[in-house]
Amino acid sequence: MVELALIALGICGVFTTLLGAVHFFFPLLLDFAQAIPREGEPILPFRLGPLRYTTLRSDVHGIAWIMNHAASYTLVTIGILDLLAYRWLGTEVGGWLAFWIAGWWFLRAGSQLYIGRRRGDWWILAGFAWLGVVHLAVGLWNSSLPNMAQ
User: C-alpha angle with apex 111: 108 to 114, nearest 5 degrees?
Assistant: First the structure.
């Protein structure tokens, strides 16, 4: 079973690392500059309780880049963790790590619906949900093991 888990997580790790690396360039690949123009009509200020911050279009464009890079960094980290699963499988923290990653993938899967409900969106949702199922299964299996760490 350990071999199967390592193979599954290895495949997930390669995919996730590559996705994370490409994700760094999504603002260019998806033409954010045209989709989120830096100039144009004023937009509503950011409000959070008593705080108010005048928001410019360039701020929104910058936030899109920041959030995309944060997602990229997380994806690359998850991919590397999956590729290093031989180090954490069977440890006490291994189950928690797999559950956290499963939660990430389930959140990502459900968030696909913000983009749309076309056939391709459902396929993408299913693919990310499948990554969540793999990690959930590994987490459940890992949690049933005696602590193998030495």
Answer: 150
